[in-house]
Amino acid sequence: MPARLVPALLLALPLAAQALCTSDGVAQPGALLERFVSADCADCWRDRATPEPAAGSFAIDWVVPGTRGDDAPLAAVALDEATERLATLGRSAPQGSDAVFGRRQGAAVGLRLAQGDAFNDYIGTSIELKSAGRGPWQAWLLLVEQLPAGTEGSPVERHLVRNVFRPDWSQPAKGHADGRAMQIHDGAKPERLRLVAVLADSRGRIRAISRTACSG
Prior knowledge:
This protein is mainly beta. The protein contains four helices and twelve strands.
């Protein structure tokens, strides 16, 4: 089957009918810890001083492209979107590592996520915002891989960002919904993949931090 047909086939069926993991019933954390590691700095990944999330917070991990390009030790998991995320947060790419803590503001906005089963290196995903004011909104949908402590020498558990989708919710509307077949990059284990979404308002304040859990 041609690979280009896979995204269309994944989205041809309602994801609600095939979803294995959703954000239903998953409490939103009150804050987000975003850890950034330069692809040039393998020692940063193994740093025992890596900050860990406090109670009520959730941590995600980005690998930022380094100056050594494909020769960087962590180049295989680096994402250009990590640089974009740093710019959104008003930070520059680190030579080693950096961490940004953001607290959710106000009552949690309802942001529903769902993911289907992996199929030919793709996974069907959806993100839906209902009755949260007209916006505009800035949404980041992240496909993350859950990595236990000890993975490649990491002293902490990590939720490594493996793919990113940024729906265009810049126009005011009563609600928004988007679906996307997200590619599973080489080396990622499908059973470890989950979704995390961060929603910010027009002033950049975090209003929702949603994540999926799997029942089976």
